[in-house]
Amino acid sequence: EYATNQFLPLIIVCASGGARMQEGSLSLMQMAKISSALYDYQSNKKLLYVSILTSPTTGGVTASFGMLGDIIIAEPNSYIAFAGKRVIEQTLNKTIPEGSQASEYLF
């Protein structure tokens, strides 16, 4: 919000193992608030948002503000995923390739 009000470019360095939903809805609410603030930042002010993804960047961060950058930079060989390999394989009932959640594979 400060960057929006001051018309400043924004850089967010993401590093998250995922939000701990078992601790309540506060984690989920904060991701929504960040995404909403970024929407205002990008759409109303037309300002530059750079997202830097480090290892790990997983869960809701990947599904929300981590991937909203105008420019997305990923640390080499970083683990970037929404869900873990085992969860994806069980959901799809198929094996996913090794390294498919590494930054080099995704970008």
UniProtKB/TrEMBL annotation:
UniProt GO cellular component terms:
acetyl-CoA carboxylase complex
Q: What SUPFAM superfamilies does the record tag this protein with?
A: ClpP/crotonase (SSF52096)
Q: Does the keyword Signal apply?
A: no
Q: Which domain of life is it from?
A: Eukaryota
Identify the Pfam families for this entry: Carboxyl_trans
Sorted UniProt keywords: ATP-binding, Chloroplast, Metal-binding, Nucleotide-binding, Plastid, Transferase, Zinc, Zinc-finger
> What does the record list as GO biological process?
fatty acid biosynthetic process; malonyl-CoA biosynthetic process
A molecular function (GO) held by this record is: ATP binding
InterPro entries to which the protein is assigned, alphabetical = AcCoA_carboxyl_beta (IPR034733), Acetyl_CoA_COase_Trfase_b_su (IPR000438), ClpP/crotonase-like_dom_sf (IPR029045), COA_CT_N (IPR011762)
Give every CoA carboxyltransferase N-terminal domain span: 1-107
Keyword field contains Ribonucleoprotein: no
User: Which PROSITE patterns does this UniProt record tie to the protein?
Assistant: COA_CT_NTER
Alphabetized PANTHER family for the sequence: ACETYL-COENZYME A CARBOXYLASE CARBOXYL TRANSFERASE SUBUNIT BETA, CHLOROPLASTIC
Assembly behavior? Acetyl-CoA carboxylase is a heterohexamer composed of biotin carboxyl carrier protein, biotin carboxylase and 2 subunits each of ACCase subunit alpha and ACCase plastid-coded subunit beta (accD).
Q: What is this protein called?
A: Acetyl CoA carboxylase carboxyltransferase beta subunit
Q: What is the lineage of its organism?
A: Eukaryota, Viridiplantae, Streptophyta, Embryophyta, Tracheophyta
